[in-house]
């Protein structure tokens, strides 16, 4: 039985297959409307994340399947002191598949040891969030038609942003990809990832200001920079505006740039950018539904 | 117990000088009913000084724990007063319930009945990675 715990659990060929299936589902949703009739997905959110939970539930309902679960730990048996593994063992008697989010790192692995159904990791603390990465990959592929040869700019908090870390790891597997990291000194990509790029001979640059590199980017992946992550106020004041994307900055970029963001955003992308056809962050949300439909479909095929 | 001769038992040789107590505790040798001798600062040609532990019974030793603590240790199995078997240790590929994950965000900190599982990822640097949260831990040399 297969689980999806880490994006590295999937080979590039499997990712290609999921993107292709998700694309077909998006183009012909009616063909899949009844494809999971009678199947049940449990969404177990030991930590609240409304948009991720809704995305999974929408994916299952779009295929005629059913959904049960809980939205936070205080409405679950965990609040009464039940262990994660006992909860999983119980719930796996009621469903065909589990999507779980948990504040502790490695919780989905602990769950998979006791589950009788496949486990999808819907986020485990700051560790992994593979369906977000699948969503990002699908969006890049739909917008660009390929992964190869792209220059990917990553902007904002690159130190703590797990979506950025997984995206770097996943994109590193394709030929000719180049990374441009745009962040303040304090929030640079962790050393182990930089080392990983260096070992693989993947070109990358680290810069502080977005303005300097916008013209060369194919993808600009934005994340939020939180004030409390800065060591000193002076740096924050000096740099805060460079990590906010505005229509003025968009004028520096080429016509084929695509702007992405895992959402929710706070103020790092001005709402005035939303109307720009190069802004695809709401496309990402839409793709997230279809790539989850594809993932659920493939995991349940293997069980059958 | 004559510490020079054991009739049937185990001799842990080539322990780094000063680390025998740590090994005594890690293997729970204090719980054994038989006699156990720790000999410290023995002169050694290869090591300068070394420690030795002699156990006067044929017990089951957790070689993973021992290999993790010090892969340079030699385990001599004594039968009828002579060395019947010499075991050389290696860093174990997988550690189960030998070390605890130190990452406070790891699931093992709250789900206490879980086995603590680590995998060897960089043998040269003796780095192990938690099978749950991927946090790395280095065993000192
Ligand atoms: Zn851990």
Itemize the secondary structure elements and their pairings.
The complex is a heterodimer of chains A (304) and B (141).
Chain A: H1 12-27, E1 40-45, H2 50-61, E2 66-70, H3 84-91, E3 97-102, H4 107-112, E4 119-124, H5 130-144, E5 151-155, H6 162-171, E6 178-182, H7 191-200, E7 204-207, E8 219-222, H8 233-239, H9 247-250, E9 258-260, H10 281-303
Parallel strand pairs in A: 1-2, 1-3, 3-4, 5-6, 5-8, 6-7, 8-9
Helix pairs in contact in A: 1-5, 1-10, 2-10, 5-6, 5-10
Chain B: E1 9-16, H1 20-26, E2 36-44, E3 48-55, H2 63-69, E4 74-79, E5 82-88, E6 94-96, E7 117-122, E8 127-130, E9 136-138
Antiparallel strand pairs in B: 1-3, 1-4, 2-3, 4-5, 6-7, 7-8, 8-9
The structure holds zinc ion.
Zinc ion binds at residues 101, 103, 106, 108, 130, 132-133, 135 of chain B.
Can you walk me through this structure?
With 304 residues, chain A is an alpha/beta fold. Chain A has ten helices and nine strands. Chain A has a five-stranded parallel β-sheet. Chain A is globular, with a radius of gyration of 20 Å. Chain A starts with 11 loop residues before the first helix and ends with a helix. The model of chain A has no long low-confidence stretch (mean pLDDT 94). Chain B has two helices and nine strands; from the N terminus they run E-H-E-E-H-E-E-E-E-E-E. A five-stranded antiparallel β-sheet of chain B has the order 2-3-1-4-5, with helices on one face. The interface between A and B is medium-sized, with 15 and 16 residues. Residues 101, 103, 106, 108, 130, 132-133, 135 of chain B line the site of zinc ion.
């Amino acid at each position: 039985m297969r689980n999806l715990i880490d994006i590295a659990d999937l080979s590039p060929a499997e990712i290609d297959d999921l993107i292709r299936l998700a694309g077909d589902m998006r183009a012909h949703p009616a063909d899949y409307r009844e494809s999971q009739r009678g199947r049940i997905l449990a969404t177990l959110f030991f930590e609240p994340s409304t948009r991720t939970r809704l995305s999974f539930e929408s994916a299952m309902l779009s295929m005629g399947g059913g959904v049960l679960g809980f939205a936070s730990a205080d409405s679950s048996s965990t609040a009464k002191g039940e262990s994660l593994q006992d909860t999983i063992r119980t719930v796996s008697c009621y469903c065909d598949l589990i999507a779980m989010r948990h504040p502790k790192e490695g919780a989905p692995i602990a769950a998979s040891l006791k589950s009788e159904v496949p486990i999808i990791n819907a986020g485990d603390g700051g560790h992994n969030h593979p369906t977000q990465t699948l969503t990002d990959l699908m969006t890049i592929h739909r917008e660009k038609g390929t992964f190869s040869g792209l220059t990917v700019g990553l902007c904002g908090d690159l130190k703590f942003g797990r979506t950025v870390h997984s995206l770097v790891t996943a994109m590193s597997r394709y030929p000719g990809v180049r990374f441009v990291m745009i962040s303040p000194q304090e929030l640079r990509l962790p050393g182990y990832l930089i080392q990983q790029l260096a070992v693989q001979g993947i070109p990358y640059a680290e810069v502080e200001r977005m303005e300097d590199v916008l013209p060369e980017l194919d993808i600009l992946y934005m994340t939020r920079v939180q004030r409390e992550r800065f060591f000193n106020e002076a740096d924050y004041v000096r740099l805060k505006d460079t990590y906010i994307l505005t229509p003025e900055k968009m004028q520096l970029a080429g016509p084929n740039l695509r702007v992405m963001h895992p959402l929710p955003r706070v103020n790092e992308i001005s709402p005035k950018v939303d109307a720009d056809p190069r802004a695809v962050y709401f496309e990402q949300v839409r793709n997230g539904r279809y790539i989850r439909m594809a993932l659920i479909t493939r995991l349940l095929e293997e069980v059958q | 117990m004559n510490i020079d001769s054991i009739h049937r038992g185990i001799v842990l040789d080539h322990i780094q000088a000063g680390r025998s107590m740590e090994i005594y505790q890690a293997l729970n040798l204090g719980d054994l009913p038989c006699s156990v001798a720790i000999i410290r600062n023995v002169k050694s040609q290869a090591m300068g000084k070394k420690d030795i532990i002699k156990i006067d019974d044929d017990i089951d030793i957790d070689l993973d724990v021992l290999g993790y603590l010090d892969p340079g240790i030699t385990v001599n199995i004594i039968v009828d007063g002579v060395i019947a078997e010499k075991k050389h240790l290696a860093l174990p590929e997988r550690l189960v319930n030998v070390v605890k994950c130190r990452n406070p965000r790891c699931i093992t900190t709250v789900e206490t009945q879980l086995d603590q599982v680590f995998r060897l990822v960089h043998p040269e640097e003796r780095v192990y990675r938690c099978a749950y949260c991927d946090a790395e831990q280095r065993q000192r040399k």
